[in-house]
Amino acid sequence: GAVVSQHPSRVICKSGTSVKIECRSLDFQATTMFWYRQFPKQSLMLMATSNEGSKATYEQGVEKDKFLINHASLTLSTLTVTSAHPEDSSFYICSARSGSTDTQYFGPGTRLTVL
Amino acid sequence: SQQGEEDPQALSIQEGENATMNCSYKTSINNLQWYRQNSGRGLVHLILIRSNEREKHSGRLRVTLDTSKKSSSLLITASRAADTASYFCATVPYNQGGKLIFGQGTELSVKP
Asked: Which residues contact B89 (CB under 8 A, 6 or more apart)?
């Protein structure tokens, strides 16, 4: 089946620094990638949708200048949390989809802790 | 923009019993999907049911969809301790680029 990887799996950083999270589709071309955030004991909240080669579409309430998304190739999307603060600590999960299929393939997630 | 609500929020049963989780949503959908998540881990896709389908089976899983009531249910039969996890429904709203909108989830605990 299709595999999506995320790197790093876990990151701890100081407040004010920026953190980049990578999402890769390993065996298929992902025309669309999605980024989600999940706080403890809560559900996944869609942050943004990114299509290869175009600007990401952010959900309401998500700051696009704080969460920079780049989808430069058909196998890689990155999420950069800029000037991270403790309230940005969360589990970030990406998913990838090929073409217009219904199925999204999820990465294993990245746990971000901002001290 | 979460649109799904699930109940119960938490469910505790004995091994061998059946577990039923319900999901309601608000808008027209292309399909509805169920996922499982073990604590602190990624998502596992369980089953997808399209808007023109009413029932679907996969192993011990049975999913129903009632588009007139905008609701779905997931039944796990003959539960096992390994089924302990959080279960989420997620809808693909009609004409919104294929994004998934997740429900709040049901935390299932199956006691051996």
From this structure: B4, B6, B21, B23, B25, B32, B33, B34, B35, B72, B74, B102, B103
Give the tokens for residue B33. 């999907």
Q: Which residue has tokens 């989809």? A: A97
Contact B82, B16 (CB under 8 A): no
pLDDT tens for each residue of A70-100: 988 999 999 999 999 999 999 999 999 887 6
Residue B6, both tokens: 């699930």
Q: Using one digit for the tens of pLDDT, what is the confidence trace for A29-60?
A: 988 999 999 998 899 999 999 988 888 999 99
Determine whether the interchain pair A111/B45 forms a contact, defined as Cβ–Cβ distance below 8 Å. no
**C-alpha to C-alpha distance for A46 and A108, rounded to whole angstroms:** 16
Q: Phi, psi (5° rounding) for residue A29?
A: -95, 120
Please judge whether B100 and A104 are an interchain contact, meaning their C-beta atoms are less than 8 angstroms apart.
Answer: yes
